[in-house]
Design brief:
This protein is an alpha+beta fold. The protein is built from three helices and twelve strands; from the N terminus they run ββββββββαβαβββα. β6 (about 75-80) and β7 form a beta hairpin. α1 (about 110-125) packs parallel to α2. It starts with 10 loop residues before the first strand and ends with a helix.
Amino acid sequence: LTWKDDVATTQAVTWRTDTSVTQPIAQIALAEDGPLFTTKAKDVSATTQLLETDLGKAHYHTANFSGLQPKTLYVYRVGDGVNWSAWKQFRTPSAEPEPFTFIYFGDAQNALKSHWWRVFREAYADAPRSQFMLHAGDLINRGSRDAEWGDWIRAGGWVNAMIPSVAIPGNHEYSKYDRFGKEYPPGMRKLSRHWQTLFEFP
């Protein structure tokens, strides 16, 4: 989850599939007790971006939910109209100033499976009602490596689908190599294409 617009009334969700999925869709509804919210779910179309990486091609899909009510719990799922994710939920923040909690992370970067996974889980256990997670750069070590991005995302698991992320690119999100390992001209570094497909920011 990320934000592209007003945090109290919008929410964006991005998910990854193989390239066979060409008609992505999301559904959203107000959270209710019991299962009947599914009959009130609204379809929201999504956009698709192709990402070519060192491990092959993938599609990243993004749906932007708008017109939401502040301080309200919503459920949503993503899919292709036939195959769906599990229903997940998020709560919009207040439109008025009030106290809140967020989680601050810095430099996940190295040995992601050894350290980042544990740090993430410990932080979430300590602050499970956080409004968002702030990632202060250097999420991964090599911005063009698909496997590193996969490890970073998997560490957060379902939490990434329920608490929005705000992320700032660090120097390790910039690469001097393209996805094929070819070096850019001297002095040139480019922001990882993963960043632009994974995060839906202003």
